[in-house]
Amino acid sequence: MKYRSILAAAALALASAPMAQAGRGDAGNLNIIYWQAASILNPYLSGGTKDIDASALILEPLARYDENGNMVPWLAEEIPTVANGGVSEDLTTITWKLKEGIKWSDGTDLTADDVVFTANYCMAPDGGCQGLAAFADVANVEALDPLTVKITFDKPKPFPYGPFVGATTPIIQRAQFENCVGAKAPECTEQNFNPVGTGPFRVVEFRANDVITMEANPNYRDPDKPHFATLTFKGGGDAAAAARAVLETGEFDYAWNLQIDPAILSQMAKGGKGTVISAFGTAVERLMVNLTNPDPALGEKRSTLEGGPHPFLTDPAVRRALSLAIDRNLLAEVGYGAAGQATCNVVPAPAIYVSTANDECLVQDIAKANAILDEAGWLPGPDGIRQKDGVRLSILYQTSTNAVRQDTQALIKQWWSEIGVETELKNIDAAVFFGGDQSSPDTFQKFYADIEMYTNLFDGTDPETYMKSWTCEEIPSPANNWLGSNMPRYCNPEYDALWAKLAATGPLEERAEIVKQLNDMLVQDGAMIPLIHRGRVSAHANSLTGVKLNTWDSEMWNVADWDRQ
């Protein structure tokens, strides 16, 4: 196969390379495998981690979060603060200074105009930008000079680091995307598959849902980096095959998201070719509850607010019973081992934000779940499935194809059967489920099911932008090209008002209390059913150096520093 040929060439280059400190391209080829294949290289049009991480090799933000959760300047000279004059004392503006001399991979200069354009691209009314939550309360973005960008908010913004911080909101080139704004954004295939970037690599060939071939960006700002001349970003297969390719066969240098049986992973690691790495951040495996009606008979109104409420998942008793029937501790033990912890919260970290108000779910209680349904009038029918007013508790439960997720589905289906709930299981190839194909009925944004399961998380250590994901305006629909983060279609004016209060609150302790309240509303209103606080687990070849697993940003955040010993 093509990527194996590249790897062989890389091995030959490595064998003949001098032992001195590596310069640009001296380490040959870097082989990365993400078993969820990338389907697009524009993170503004996809919420899938595999697309965001692939894009992070090419596109960069003004600032990132490092492996410890600290904000660090990237394309910017420094992090603006009130103390250094970068944030106004009234907290309504933030001014970023770009580093001098940064060029796009096509050799042209990065300027403040590109930053302004990126903001306008995402904030275009009919664009359906996946990163729109990061631009909350932005009134204006302007270039003060070629290297200075000023962002003005329409209210005081105690945490003004939403736009352009982290992998989800990088800078895109105005010259390349200027004809791709608004409704035209998804139509620009060439731009979305082959973005010009400032990052360490640039695209040579992009094959959607398969493999990306890249080469070192000849205009990257550090003349000695990246250390790898070429990079292969292979997608597809499953987590077990990806782990085996690094830990046992040595075909790949890095494997992401090794969501497999921990005992099997431990056995693979004995192969001696690679190292398993893990760290806890903010990732939570959860069940998203569709609060709208997914009935196919509704046509374009299916799974939208216009189609009406869900026939039974809008009943709080049903949602609570579904949650209580689940043994989260067993799910964590069987599926994740040391890399999983039972949780009842969508915000599991940092500790200051963690609520204890939902801990009821930590103990499975089948009897209580049955009693709740009995009291609410959901009674078993002739076939044992509970029903009320002609509506049966019959659930279509979907997720991506993955052995651990299918095991989780099977266990939950069994537990739900014990409370009189019928469950049909569906699994979808991850590249499709998390992809941005608006013509597909199987994306997690369209949510043509009753329950869906996946993991989500937030960049950095402040959850303000993340909590905006469940405001009314973030609901995916045909009007915004099915983009947006509010998969449950949860629309609660009280939640929106509380989020607005968070956005205007400065003291950390007060912000933490508001985040807890927002978390509790989502959980107690049943918009989602948190399951597992997931540690991120990946693996790299023993020969690979410089890897710093980052749970606060993209795992590809410092790939320019990776080398081969």
* CATH architecture descriptor of the largest domain: Roll
Instruction: Return the CATH topology of the largest domain.
Output: Dipeptide-binding Protein, domain 3
How many helices? The count is: 15
Helix content: 10-25%
- The tally of domains stands at 3
Total DSSP E strands:
21
Q: Please report the first level of CATH classification, the CATH class of the largest domain.
A: Alpha Beta
What is the CATH superfamily label of the largest domain?
Dipeptide-binding Protein, Domain 3
Based on secondary structure, the structural category is alpha+beta
Query: What spatial form do the alpha-carbon principal axes imply?
Result: globular
Instruction: Return the average pLDDT rounded to an integer.
Output: 93
Radius of gyration: 24 Å
Distance between the termini: 26 Å
Give a summary of the structure in a few sentences.
Helices cover 25% and strands 21% of the residues. By secondary structure, it is an alpha+beta fold. The protein has three domains: 1-58 and 199-273 and 542-565, Periplasmic binding protein-like II (D-Maltodextrin-Binding Protein, domain 2); 60-187, Dipeptide-binding Protein, domain 1 (Alpha-Beta Complex); 280-536, Roll (Dipeptide-binding Protein, domain 3).
Can you give a write-up of this model?
It is a single chain. By secondary structure, the protein is of the alpha+beta class. It has three domains: 1-58 and 199-273 and 542-565, D-Maltodextrin-Binding Protein, domain 2 (3-Layer(aba) Sandwich), CATH 3.40.190; 60-187, Dipeptide-binding Protein, Domain 1 (Dipeptide-binding Protein, domain 1, Alpha-Beta Complex); 280-536, Dipeptide-binding Protein, domain 3, CATH 3.10.105. Helices cover 25% and strands 21% of the residues. It is built from 15 helices and 21 strands. The chain has helices at residues 2-16, 49-56, 112-123, 174-177, 189-193, 239-247, 262-269, 316-324, 328-335, 366-375, 403-417, 430-433, 464-467, 493-503, 508-524, and strands at residues 29-34, 63-65, 71-73, 93-97, 138-145, 148-153, 201-207, 211-216, 230-235, 254-255, 274-289, 340-342, 379-380, 386-388, 391-392, 394-400, 422-428, 451-456, 528-541, 544-545, 563-564. The strands form five sheets. Strands 1, 7, 8, 9, 10, 11, 12, 16, 17, 18 and 19 form an eleven-stranded mixed beta sheet that branches. It has a three-stranded antiparallel beta sheet with strand order 4-6-5, with helices on one face. A three-stranded antiparallel beta sheet has the order 13-14-15, with no helix packed on it. A hairpin with a 2-residue loop joins strand 5 (138-145) and strand 6. Helix 8 (316-324) runs antiparallel to helix 10 and helix 14 (493-503) runs antiparallel to helix 15. The protein is globular, with a radius of gyration of 24 Å. The model is unreliable at 1-20 (pLDDT under 50).
